[in-house]
Amino acid sequence: MRIGLVLPAVPGYSETFFSNKIKGLEANGYTVILFVNSCNRKTKTSTKTKVAPKLSGNMVRIGMISFYRLSYSLIFHFKVSRRLFILDRDDGINFIQRIKNIIINNHIFSEPVDWLHFGFGTMVLNRENVAKAIGAKMAVSFRGFDIGIYPVKHPGCYKRLWEKVDKIHVISNDISELVYKQGFNNQVPIIKITPAIDIRFFKNNHKTEYNKIPHFITVARLHWKKGLDYTLEALALLKEENIPFHYTIIGDGPQEEYLKFGTHQLGLNDYVTFTGKLSHELVKKKLEQADIYLQYSIQEGFCNSVLEAQAIGLLCVVSDAEGLSENVLHNKTGWVVPLRQPKLLLEKIRNIINLPQTEKDTISQNAKERVKLEFNIKKQQKEFVGFYENN
């Protein structure tokens, strides 16, 4: 079986979800072809990769590339180009966009595949007919942003997709519910395959020893959806109660200045450390030095960092945003707090600090065992093989 995987770029070092999926499929005899918008030469892959035409920059250059790609498609892939043009026309897509669709999907036409799988929901927009045009089945993966945020700004954006998709992949039950809320009523299956982590790497065999001064940690992109401002508000309240602590935030992103200024305004400069982006090895080291992991997101598809923290043995506190309440089982493998309520987060953190050591150890052990059993790479790879084989 041949699987065409449509992604923004070749998966990088940190994008383990896709790289592990590709390795698992290839190990089971599948042929995987990557269709990407860009390809960083520093990102190495042995998987066959086809790059989309770059239609940006100088207008003359864009015109020349477009003319070449369109001519090439009409000469060497006339049947596929004609089929896509007609399918798009029947959907009411205007003439200019139909021509654009032939040009931007030109790199896909030459590769016969059984499945064309769009790795993100937003990547399929205006390309809903490409799979049928090349004679393949279409699969689409939905994560947090694709279905939780993008449709808020673009209502009804997936209406055309719902009528054409053959199988949908989601990473949590809450994401599945959002798919239905966006108007999906087809009978094709929605399959949940959660993220997975390298449990051999994120492993801590040593008995957990808690710091005398509680050390909190978060690994996240500095983005509004991560709810870090609410986390800082809760910790400012903890400071007012004269409870000592330290908080480490690992990551970078567009809200770095906003969050650092908020830290200053809340009087937390001596309590909070921003490390920036770190390697996996350094992230693991920082996790091993911490006590409690905080992921108080406003919106979150699932979050690998929470899985990694649980595998290390940290006590995890998360919000109830989308997949986080599946990632952490409340009062069993960690704690789930309603989002946007820093006072409730404060109460939970205070309660955890005061828990007896035996209760902390039980929660920590439960989390480690569940991650090892439910969120390992081999299990995920087996599920993706079944995703394409099972009707």
From TrEMBL:
Keywords: Transferase. GO terms for molecular function: glycosyltransferase activity. Residues 208-369 form the Glycosyl transferase family domain. It holds the Pfam family Glycos_transf_1. The keyword Transferase applies. PANTHER family: SLL1723 PROTEIN, SULFOQUINOVOSYL TRANSFERASE SQD2. This is Glycosyltransferase.
